[in-house]
Amino acid sequence: MKSQEIHLASRPQGTPTADNFSLIERELAPLQDGQVLIQNLWMSVDPYMRGRMIDRASYVPPFQLNHVLEGGAIGEIIESRNDQWPVGTKVSHMQGWRSHAICDGQGLTAIPATSLPLQSFLGIMGMPGMTAWTGLFRIAELKPGDTVFVSAASGAVGSIACQLAKLQGCTVIGSVGSDEKAESLKALDIDAVINYKTAGDLTQALAQAAPQGVDVYFENVGGEHLEAALNNMNEFGRITVCGMISQYNATEPQPGPSNIGMLIVKKLKMQGFIVFDHWQHYGDFAAQMGQWISEGKIKWDETIYEGLAQAPEAFIGLFEGKNKGKMLVKL
Amino acid sequence: MKSQEIHLASRPQGTPTADNFSLIERELAPLQDGQVLIQNLWMSVDPYMRGRMIDRASYVPPFQLNHVLEGGAIGEIIESRNDQWPVGTKVSHMQGWRSHAICDGQGLTAIPATSLPLQSFLGIMGMPGMTAWTGLFRIAELKPGDTVFVSAASGAVGSIACQLAKLQGCTVIGSVGSDEKAESLKALDIDAVINYKTAGDLTQALAQAAPQGVDVYFENVGGEHLEAALNNMNEFGRITVCGMISQYNATEPQPGPSNIGMLIVKKLKMQGFIVFDHWQHYGDFAAQMGQWISEGKIKWDETIYEGLAQAPEAFIGLFEGKNKGKMLVKL
């Protein structure tokens, strides 16, 4: 059995380019006892993967040069030497960026039988949905009536965060990078949308959109967005720090917010998180989210690239704002 | 009755100078029913007062030009037309920067009868002590065994924070701005002291002092100190943001920490606070602190300037590191 894999050919300097990736075909070893062979059907590309392409000491080891990349994927077991994981089982796992994966059963999650599309378990029902839920409820302690500002608001996480906050009776302002994205966000009944590329001074734009001030900022972008949020936060506001995509491709250190002293003046809490630390609450999340979806209370977009060879383009597209909602690769 | 008062003569540009202050003598009006006349005995100068010298919208109104300044003080009631506040009562209040104050009884706190020196209620038993306690226990959720980094560690708040953390069984590293201050901090059995003026790269100096990493950073300074702390924090660390004295005299916006993304990578919580929001817990604080003091478990320094006319110099001295422990003016 041959597997196709995307390897990290070189470490990106700045924004990743196609040259940083290579498509390799490799003969897989026969299965050993306890192992299963998975044919991947969908894979996820996510901004956080950029961090693992840098060679630095971190709590997650960096990707290795000339080795296959990793990331969320959904596949079907097509061969099994493990009784717990029979052939035909659909599973989510972390061995993406390849057509086939061999696994010993560790780190597999069976996809439950639902009417939801399979790939939703890489999006609304998976890591991005769980990230929005965790950031709002477990980190920011969202309360009904809060004014919530979400950056990258039409992204996989941001668009869900906007809708979850609306479901709680919050006023929601989102920022996006195109008028087209602004339109689709407005269609979700978000209270106000800022196109940060055309809005001019972001602090003023946010002040106009939220004259009552911001209680919760869901941070996906960093840089000017964080400065604008700090300038507009209300006393005792909470900033849930999910990502800072504007910083990921920087080739030298970027100055932080010049108004970080607002943390004191306004008595703010700013907290970073990584969703995998909260995974023990996935059941609570999935039950709530499944309910909201079944009631038609939440919608989501997908941007789909076809074929493993397109995975690098899909990934690079994340930093060019090419996705509406979840960026996916269909294998 | 005449009162001497320090007025704000002009708004400081950068570090305050003597020219920004003027000493005025003013005739006080006779007391009305319900009022008391206080002769001030001690007054406090604190870094936070610098913020109120700027003319900007904030949650606390700025000091007005050619009006008397305000701040913590302790005095004795020498005339009273209020039965609740008899002559001879020692009180703490917020009408400092003047020799005599007229008050209607609001905002007065009677100094309890103890063997402690009166001025300790502007220091260890007052706002700075309560600030250290609040920042460690209510904001940073200090746990025994934590490694704690305190900046401005020989200051009024920092030196108490260091000792409170030691009392909890923590490992404590302090940063100070002179070898003399380092020596006095070491005399308090603090585990390691960094003289930031001679230590070179602060990230490396902190890494050497805390090879196990930092769980709690008590932030009094900002700038490079915050960057160094972020670089050395452990996962799930907490940064309690009490002050950023390095920023207060800046004449233009200072770049924030270039490594603010560490909040995500390390899942950090960073929270600003102002002690007055927590004043309902003063009784708990005072009981615990009084106990520790009576057991000889905590020590404090004072730096005393004599006479109201010296108050501006005492205040300016805060930004030049002239105080060990609490900076006070004896009237």
UniProtKB/TrEMBL annotation, chains A, B:
Residues 17-329 form the Enoyl reductase (ER) domain. SMART domains: PKS_ER (SM00829). Keywords: Oxidoreductase. It comes from the Bacteria. Coiled coil: none annotated. Pfam families: ADH_N_2 (PF16884), ADH_zinc_N (PF00107). InterPro entries: ADH-like_C, ADH_N_2, ER, GroES-like_sf, MDR_fam, NAD(P)-bd_dom_sf. The keyword DNA-binding does not apply. Gene3D superfamilies: Medium-chain alcohol dehydrogenases, catalytic domain, NAD(P)-binding Rossmann-like Domain. This is NADP-dependent oxidoreductase. It comes from Photobacterium atrarenae.
